[in-house]
Design goal:
single chain, alpha+beta, two-stranded antiparallel ribbon, 4 strands, 37% helix, 25% strand
């Protein structure tokens, strides 16, 4: 059973999450030669204060 974890910042709509989960699940299922029902996708959303890019907090970069 493949488990895929996608980590990013919050803000993506439910509809876009559904599309992403379906497409990623299908790609991984095809790669493993398994039915899509065997894949699990976890989406982890981190606040912009909890993400660092290039040594800076993402919320500070956006200001």
């Amino acid at each position: 059973m493949p488990v895929i974890t996608i980590a990013g910042n919050p803000g993506i709509s439910k509809e876009k999450k559904e599309k992403m989960i379906k497409e990623v699940s299908q790609i991984v299922a095809d790669a493993y030669g398994l039915p899509i029902s065997t894949t699990t996708v976890l989406i982890q959303a981190y606040p912009r204060d909890d993400i660092g890019v290039g040594g800076e907090i993402l919320s500070n970069i956006d200001e």
